Amino acid sequence: MGGEELHAQLERRGAMLQGHFQLASGRHAGTYIEKFRILQWPDVTGELCAEIAARFAGEAPNVVAGPTTGGVILAFEVARQMGLRAIIAERGETAGREFRRGFELGPGDRVLVVDDVLTTGGSLRDTVAAVTARGAQVVGIGVLVNRGAKPNFEAPLHACLTVDAASWAPEECELCRRGLPLVVT
To answer: For the whole model, what pTM was predicted?
Structure first.
């Protein structure tokens, strides 16, 4: 699915919203991508996961990892399509992400990390840190939508769609200055 077609799909299915939103990162934005309005559609989700799987097949991963919450669905579907296993990086007890529930990962593992929407890269950085803390290697990072972030990951990054969606720290928010009502996501 090409970028323009995906963008149109997301708008038609109510996943690309316009207004004044407080993102999970605390930043404010005029465009919000509601990941669950994407993930509720197996046809679109499956097609996007196939794109990620195809992009990273040559990197020879042997496991796919995703952070809670949306990354769980994506890790499962990408792993299913690649014939691999999927593991979940949950929020840590004090900070970051960690693998619990008996998920095994260690030296020799080649991990493809996936997530839904990339805004600041915090969830992905924490998942990458959890992978490398176990001695495994991250061979790629795949996301459905990049909100225009330019993170510096050591592994190649692939986004099915990149949207130039400005965001601001709350104290610098243009939409707050204009008095638009804030929707907390």
So the answer is: 0.90
